[in-house]
Structures are given as structure tokens and as C-alpha cells.
């Protein structure tokens, strides 16, 4: 009876540990989901910046075409329009340069976040595998105890 009581207590303790491990696994999965959402948001921002750069490139091309048409109309008007177009082009190139720099920074940030996420994900997978291995060992041990108990009584 005493042995039965001790075995029952051990089984209950192992079941509590199993529940705790399961709860931790659920928490790890939630953390992974949040990280994936964060990466998705970064990708959306990256796509938005890419579209903005394309729009700025189109605006730059339109400004250059406009400057060429003005040169054809009159030399005098072309000179003043060309200065305005050059100024606008410089502003657009500066803005494009800033956007490219920001895009590169976002890409680096995204890559770094992905590396950290992959590392964390691998760590979590390893922990999960270790936890599952421990769970299996505990279950085998409990099964052994049950079998031993049945054989003894």
C-alpha cells in the first residue's frame, strides 16, 4: 500500500510536470507566432518602401522628359526650366538616395531579424525536442512502473 501510494504520488508529479511542459510548449508557439507577425510587418514596410522608390524613379523620369520638351520649345525658356528641373532632379535623387539607404537598412534589419528568429526558432525546436524526449522517457518510466506494479501485485 505504501509503495502504491508512493508510485501514485510519483505518477501525479510526472503528470504535473507533463502539464507544465505542455504549457511551456504553448507559450513557445505563441512567441513564434508573434515573431512571424513581426517579420511579416517588416516585409510589408519593405514592400511599401520599394513601391515608393519606384514611384520616385517614375517621377524623376517624368521630370527629365519634361525638361527635354522645354529645351525643344525655346532656348531661353529651356534654360530657366532646365534649372528648375535640375533642382527638382537633385531633390529627387537625394530623396531616392535616402530611400535606397533606408531600404538597405530595412533589408539588413529584416535579415538580422530573420537570423535571430531562425536562431530562436532552432533553439525552441531543440528545446521542444528535448522536452518531448523527456516526456517520452517519463512516459516509458511510468509505463515501466505500471507494468512492474502489475507484475508485483
Automatic annotation (TrEMBL):
Highest taxon above the source species: Eukaryota
| One Gene Ontology term from the biological process aspect of the record | regulation of cilium assembly
> What residue spans carry the Basic and acidic residues bias annotation?
68-85
Key words of the record = Cell projection, Cilium, Coiled coil, Cytoplasm, Cytoskeleton, Developmental protein, Differentiation, Flagellum, Microtubule, Spermatogenesis
Give compartment(s): Cell projection, Cilium, Flagellum; Cytoplasm, Cytoskeleton, Microtubule organizing center, Centrosome, Centriole; Cytoplasm, Cytoskeleton, Spindle pole
- From which residue to which does any coiled coil extend? none
Composition bias of kind Polar residues appears in 96-106
- Span list, region Disordered: 68-87, 96-115
Quote the cellular component terms of the Gene Ontology held in the record.
Answer: centriole; centrosome; microtubule; motile cilium; spindle pole
Family in the record = Belongs to the ODF2 family.
The protein depicted here goes by the name: Outer dense fiber protein 2
Q: Which organism is it from?
A: Halcyon senegalensis
Amino acid at each position: 500500500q505504501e509503495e502504491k501510494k508512493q508510485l501514485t504520488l510519483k505518477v501525479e508529479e510526472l503528470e504535473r510536470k507533463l502539464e507544465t511542459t505542455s504549457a511551456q510548449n504553448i507559450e513557445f508557439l505563441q512567441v513564434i507566432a508573434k515573431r512571424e507577425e513581426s517579420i511579416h510587418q517588416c516585409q510589408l514596410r519593405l514592400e511599401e518602401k520599394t513601391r515608393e522608390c519606384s514611384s520616385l524613379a517614375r517621377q524623376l523620369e517624368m521630370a527629365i522628359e519634361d525638361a527635354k520638351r522645354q529645351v525643344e520649345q525655346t532656348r531661353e525658356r529651356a534654360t530657366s526650366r532646365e534649372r528648375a528641373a535640375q533642382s527638382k532632379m537633385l531633390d529627387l535623387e537625394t530623396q531616392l538616395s535616402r530611400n535606397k539607404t533606408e531600404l538597405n537598412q530595412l533589408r539588413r534589419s529584416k535579415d538580422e531579424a530573420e537570423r535571430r528568429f531562425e536562431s530562436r526558432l532552432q533553439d525552441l525546436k531543440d528545446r521542444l525536442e528535448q522536452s518531448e524526449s523527456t516526456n517520452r522517457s517519463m512516459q516509458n518510466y511510468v509505463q515501466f512502473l505500471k507494468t512492474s506494479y502489475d507484475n508485483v501485485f
